[in-house]
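User: Can you model how glycinamide ribonucleotide sits in this protein?
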Amino acid sequence: MKKRIAVLISGSGSNLQAIIDAINDKSINGEIVVVISNRADAYGLSRAKQANIATKVLQHTDYQNRIDFDQALLKTIDHYQAELVVLAGFMRILSAEFVNHFADKMLNIHPSLLPKYKGLTTHQRAIDAGDKLHGCSVHFVTAQLDDGPIALQTIVAIAADESAASLQKKVHVTEHIAYPKVVAWYCDERLKCIENKLYLDSELLSETGFKLSF
Ligand code: GAR
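Assistant: Here's the modeled complex, given as structure tokens:
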């Protein structure tokens, strides 16, 4: 059975596109049942329409507070009977109620080697710290921002003359490999999150997940 996936976006949706492509070439045994954006102008909405996927815009500015917005979001996802929620550049902090409702079935991608550099400007902060390596993390979502058990990390080298823009590009390319891979594992029931620990093919993953070096 194909897993029903809801993808939440706020922007360009290049990670959404990578997942659509992987579904089309049958690397992911799932279907995207809805793409939800909190911004009406998110380019990812056009990508979804192009792929004949249902779209919904829920603008957080239309709601009185975070709880009301999250409640509307939750109802929409449940209406589509999604079994997996994929945050793909969804730039809203989610309430604990929302996160707990989708416990062990919500993934996020973050452009850093977590637990380093939660939040924004991750590439610049890695350069400023003099790090030699950087990358992205795909993780299950818990109530803490950019936290939760890590399924996979990609690793890229930071060059001596690296700029935040060039590093961001380098990492972005690896995100498009990492996210479809983890979604495929989940849909094939190879990856499981049990009591905040991750198992891939029944083997306990390390705290920073499976590694892909580039
Ligand atoms: C990605 O780089 C993703 O890692 C980042 O937003 C970008 C969305 O790109 N997410 C976060 O920073 C979440 N904390 P996309 O819209 O092209 O997929």
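A couple of observations from the model: Residues 9, 11-15, 44, 88-89, 109-111, 136, 146, 172, 175 surround glycinamide ribonucleotide (CB under 6 Å). DSSP finds six helices and eleven strands in the chain.
User: Helpful, thanks.
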